[in-house]
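Revision sheet: structure tokens.
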Amino acid sequence: MSRLTPRQQDVLRFIDQYTREHHQSPRIREIATHFGFSPPAGGQHVMALERHGLIDHNPYREPCLALTEAGRAALTETVQPWHDRQKTRIRTIPQLRERLQEIQRYWERQAQEKKLDPVVARAVILSLRQVERQLEHDLDLPPGD
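Predicted:
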């Protein structure tokens, strides 16, 4: 699902799952309620999916939201998350720093390969850096390299 935010991917999956379970597409209000955001934000996600050509939105027919062939194909794509490797328990501060840097490199790669919205990836990277700085401050550690 290239160039979609993780939330848009979740909305696409939700539309597909809801349609399969209820034999009708969800209303925008139901999408918003499910994800805990406002109805206008739900509409924004639907419009974004429509712009990507993943859904067809026609409020005058039922189902008003229908996945396109590209939308169905996007659901079958798998994204290899950074945490798909064997999980190990973090026991030391250097291990924690290394894990944070590993996550940061993953997000940088995803943005470079255009698999994620660069603005979202940049926000996550900045958040990770802030977490590392906060740990250094709280634990009175020397800054990491």
